[in-house]
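Tutorial sheet, problem 5. The three components below are modelled jointly, 927 residues in total.
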Amino acid sequence: MTAMAPLEHYLILSAILFAIGAAGIFVRRNLITMLLAVEIMLNAVNLTFVAFGRALGAADGQIIVFFVMTVAAAEAAVGLAIVIALFRHRESLHPEAFTTLRG
Amino acid sequence: MLFYLFGAIAVAASLLVIAQPNPVYSVLLLIASFGALSGLYVLLDAPFVAAIQIIIYAGAIMVLFLFVVMLLHATKEEPEGVPAEAGSPLVLPARGAVRLGAWLAVALGIEFVWALASARESGDFAGGSVSSVSALGRLLFTEYAFAFEVTSILILVAMVGAVVLARREDPPDAGGAATEEGAR
Amino acid sequence: MLLLIPLLPFAGFLANASLGRRLPKAVSGTIACSAIGASFVVSVLSVTRLLAQPVEARAIAQDVFTWISAGRVDVAFGLRLDPLSALMILVVTGIGSLIHVYSTAYMHEESDPEYARYFSYLNLFAAFMLVLVLGSNFLVLFVGWEGVGLCSYLLIGFWYRKPSAADAGKKAFVVNRIGDFAFILGMLLVFATFGTLEFQAVAEQVARLAPETVFGTLSLITLLLFIGATGKSAQIPLFVWLPDAMEGPTPVSALIHAATMVTAGVYMIGRNAVLFSHAPDTLAIIALVGVATALVAGTIGLVQTDIKRVLAYSTVSQLGYMFLAMGVGAWGAGVFHLYTHAFFKALMFLGSGAVIHALHGEQDLRRMGGLKHDLPVTYWTFLIGALAIAGVPGLAGFFSKDEILFRTFTSGHTLLWVVGVLTALLTATYMFRLVFLAFHGVRRGDGDHGHGLHDAPPAMAIALVVLAVGSVLAGYIGVPHALGGSNQLEQFLEPSFRAGAEAASHGETHASLAIEFGLMGASTLAAVAGIALAAFFFLRRPEAAAALSERFSGVYRLLLNKYYVDELYDAAVVQPIRRTSEGALWKGLDVRVIDGAVNGVGAGVFGAGSLLRRLQTGSVRAYGAGLMLGVVLVVGYYLW
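Model answer (structure tokens):
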């Protein structure tokens, strides 16, 4: 087995991915791709959990990832359903098209 | 090493996901990113997680995204110009805020990296790995049993919710006739 | 049992106030009259009991309940019957009862609810007045003091729909209040100095002190109390409310503004005789104010055309005499005059009421005349009253007024005596002017409204007659030694004017018989001269009066307009206060500062809100940006 990269490197990678995901929400102008950016963030978190789990020698990290993935799936389903409903309303996927709760 | 390879792929793919305009490509690139992540999980002695990452995330969720993208013909990126309520005095500050948000995300990343980099090197992974599925299963059904059950209800709720939310609204007469038929 | 005396009329008040609206006039009137009548009976019984006791121990006390008990302040609601208050309660309940009976006829034209309202107020007044004179300490007296002020306001403004009546009520109350303010300060000073508010206790402490030679604490206390008395008893400078108070029903004028309430000031000084006798500076002021008021009021009364106004100024003038007496230390004489004055002044007011009633509301003397034929009972009783007030020998007024003048002269206040005699002349003159103008000569007004004039109905007549008898006989309890009497009243009252421990002082000052007769002669001469003057100008040659007023038109107008005192007060006090209240306090403070602050808070919140509103852009990504900002900051803080 090759030597493992140090823990910090995994965490740094995870942080970079998280930042990319967060930036993506603001950069993208399409509701669906915004949700994709959210998925990126969730994955970055998963990576952190697994890395720590391995570092501490516990399986809990993986269990938590299990749950995270489940919830992410549920959230993606519902989120996309909402996007579909919104699209039917406005024929647009631009986030700025849905600003009626304003003022 | 493999870590840096997979890491680079993941970062590059994610960057492209948010950088390039076509949503279909974004989804596909994300799948690639997930693949890289899966490899990372293997390196972390977590084969089960690697497996379900591919199966569920890349295989199910991303496919769902793809379906929706296709369904809505969202193949083009929208232009910056706000479609409807232009001329409202609140829009301009909003745009500025959005740009600010993006930079703030970058700042967050830098913050984390900086903090991690300046931490002392704890270096290696101590402890053994727990990679057997049976061990995971045991843990899942004992300590995390409650969470497990609740999650299953969550999925049920999400399913129902998705169906209801995405349902096309029935035109009046057809729906009326249908319900009358159903009632009788 | 003492408590019953004020309690019975108070019960009458409660009954009429709560049920009166639905009761017929006969019932509410009976309730009121029985209440005060019963109080009179109890008063008589109490006084009888008092007389049965030896002179040295003539007092019946009753502490009804402990009112205030807090730290150093220990005040009971106490009542005390001694010679002075005995005389007062007899006057209040006795004359009060007569006036209640009189009112049942006089107010008969009012509607049932108004009738009951009137009697409830009248009963309430009696209750408060009795509390005032029976109180054993300053605080209880003050309760009565304020209470009668309230009832005076209510009764003056009884016909409140008439603006002049409502205004007069307010004027009375406000002017009284000014005096009350001084009175309260005096009370506080009493408590601070003596540690108690009980009359007996204060008197005993003061008796051990020497009379002040310079203006010190005692003088200040007594001066403040006296200022309160000027308000309540209509002396200079606070007399301006009494003439306006004539807006009220005439029986009210008779009871409150002649016989009882206005005498409260005199009573108060008598009650605190020991205290006042130790403050010679204040006494000098009192005497001066009293005699000046007597003179000024007399001159004003000389030219007034409203029958009630003449009587009102006459009351102010006679009160001046009472204060003159108090000012020279002749407490008994002052109270004596209070007592006799109650009879004949009430009589004359009620008589004028009968006249007004017969003439269906006419009050202007210039439109009266020749009434002695149409209203015989009224005329003869009124005449007796006029003779009494003029000081004609043999009637009550002679004895009391003469006693005052005698004591003034013999205590060395010669100048005051001269003014007093002059005022006696004026009194006779203006009073008989009224008599001649109203009752003699030929009727000047418009015709007799169709039907003949009717004299006072029985309820009114009986009061007139009884009071007339009193005006004649009442003085005989105070016949001076010089005329062979033993001045029983003076002896009776004497224990009230000294502290318990003091030895009895030796009666009246001694002067030679010659001087005494000489003085008596002077006052009699003044009386007769006054009547003669009035007869000349208003009986024989009425044109002469008109000619005189033409020649001295400046003086005439000055008197007619009451020396422009009201106008002076208005300009000097009322308008500045009004302007300050309106301009500074209302517009400046209330509107700009207070309203501004309150509205400003609202406007501020509104403004802040419209600024904060801008945050609600509706753009989810903008909200997300805010979130990110927070995350960056918090994470930064923890990682630092």
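Marking note: The domain at 8-90 of chain A is CATH 1.10.287.3510 (Helix Hairpins). Full credit if you identified this.
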